[in-house]
Every structure is written in C-alpha cells, then in structure tokens.
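Researcher: We plan to redesign the surface later, but first we want a full-length starting point. Tokens attached.
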C-alpha cells in the first residue's frame, strides 16, 4: 500500500525565470505528484450533490444520492460483525483514508458509512487531526481537490525521500511550467494573453498540457472571433496539493490588480476532450 508524501517544492515564483530544463511536477505545499495512471484514480466532484430524503422526511445517504466516484448509486452499508460493532465511526473513517492512495470526498465517505452526512465526516477528520497533533504523529489528513488524503509532514521529507527514492515520473519543461502558471493565475485565459506574458507562442505547449489533463478548454470569450479560453483541471489541484485555486501563492506579476470577471460561453466538460487542435496547437470548435 503506497501513501502520499510531502516532497520539497520546485514550483515557485523563481522557477518562471530559470533556464529551460525538465523538472518534476511538485506542488507549492510540497506534495509529490503526479502519480502514474495505475496509481491514481480521479476524484469525483461533490458539487451540487444533495442528500436523499426518506418517506418519513428524515434525510440520509441512500441509493438516491447523486452519482459519485464512478458509482451508479450509493452502496449498502456493510453488515457489522460482533467485533466490528465495537469500532468507532472515527476509526472507520481513519481506516478508509489510510487504505486509499487518492483523495476521498466527504460525501463518498458518508455514503460508505451509511449514516450521518458530510458535516459529521468533517468533524471526524478534524478530531483525527487533533489526535495526531497531540500524539506527535508524522502525518495529517489534508484536503486535496475537495477530498481527504493522509500525507506525511514536510519535516520528514529527507527520510521519506530516501526510502522512496523519488522517481521523476512526469516532467515539465520550464516553458511548460511558465505556461501552466499563467493559465492558473489568469484563468479563464486566452492564448493571446498567455503569449503576450511569455513573449513566445503557446499553442503547442497548451496542447501538451491538455493531453496531460492539467489544462482544459473552459469556454469561448464573448469577443471578436470568440477565442478559446483555458483553465486548470481538478487534476492540477491534485498534483499540486491544493484544495482550491484560492490556495495558490500570491504572485504579483501574474495577478492583475483589478481583474474584472470575463464574460464567456462555457464548454460542456464532455466536449473539451474531443476538441481537435490545428497546426499551431490551438483547438478549434
């Protein structure tokens, strides 16, 4: 069973001015990523998901709960044996998080428990982190891309890194890192904006980042020519250990002082993967 670990960051404001070279994808808070395809499953989004209501008016997590994590319906709670009946809900939540190699949303945990809701799950996670702090544990439960995952503390990087002999599984050139940073801070961003900031063409690099599922097309700007707009993906949040885009470090050069909300037409999620690219790497609808 492999666990996620914190590794010193290599993506910061200074990286964008360095020489063009291959570097590991490592997030600002120090989490290693991304994993290989067979190590990391996608994390379902819990936005807009409600809780089913029984005939008698009581609410609970049941088969009518919204689809999440690739499941068509919430599974029935497991039957407890004589020994399992003595376990606490807090310890069960802990066991699920320990066994998972990818973030689990609070809703998914509540569905498996078959009782309580997202609020109760969050309380259990908070209580576990308090206990870990009091006992001097070397790990905590972090919120990553709207899910929870156990991760080692940064101060253990030296020893954990030697144990794992960290592999350079996925590399990004300096140009790719700079382009990704611009998209992250300026999204939704047009290709011409990205090219103006970097001073070079960005079509091919944007296409590469889309293939790596770090960048996606989010819509078309309501401007002349209706140019495509780019934004980051949930995979981006997972790789860099961010709960949301609000956790991005503040970089004055990339964040305009009074950025106004851009009016644009969103592109349905299922359509973004099927958008072809032209010779310059720009996708065309």
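Model: Full-length starting sequence:
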């Amino acid at each position: 069973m492999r666990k996620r670990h914190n590794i010193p960051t290599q993506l910061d404001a200074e990286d964008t001015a360095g020489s063009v070279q291959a570097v590991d994808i490592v997030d600002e808070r120090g989490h290693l990523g991304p994993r290989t395809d067979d190590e990391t499953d996608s994390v379902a989004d819990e936005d807009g998901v409600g809780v089913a209501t029984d005939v008698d008016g009581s609410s609970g997590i049941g088969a009518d709960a919204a689809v999440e994590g690739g499941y068509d319906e919430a599974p029935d709670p497991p039957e407890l044996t004589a020994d399992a009946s003595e376990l606490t809900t807090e310890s069960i939540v802990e066991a699920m998080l320990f066994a998972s190699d990818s973030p689990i949303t609070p809703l998914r945990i509540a569905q498996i428990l078959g009782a309580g809701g997202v609020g109760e799950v969050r309380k259990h996670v908070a209580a576990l982190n308090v206990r870990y702090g009091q006992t001097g544990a070397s790990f905590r439960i972090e919120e990553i891309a709207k899910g929870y995952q156990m991760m080692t503390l940064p101060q253990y990087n030296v020893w954990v890194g030697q144990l794992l002999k960290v592999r350079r599984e996925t590399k990004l050139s300096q140009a790719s890192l700079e382009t990704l940073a611009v998209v992250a801070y300026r999204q939704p961003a047009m290709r011409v904006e990205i090219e103006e900031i970097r001073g070079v063409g960005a079509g091919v690099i944007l296409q590469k980042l889309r293939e790596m599922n770090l960048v996606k097309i989010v819509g078309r700007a309501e401007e002349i020519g209706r140019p495509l707009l780019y934004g980051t993906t949930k995979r981006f949040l997972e790789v860099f250990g961010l709960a949301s885009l609000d956790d991005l470090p503040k970089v004055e050069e990339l964040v305009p002082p009074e950025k106004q909300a851009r009016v644009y037409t969103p592109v349905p999620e299922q359509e973004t993967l099927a958008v072809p690219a032209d010779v310059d790497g720009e996708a065309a609808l």
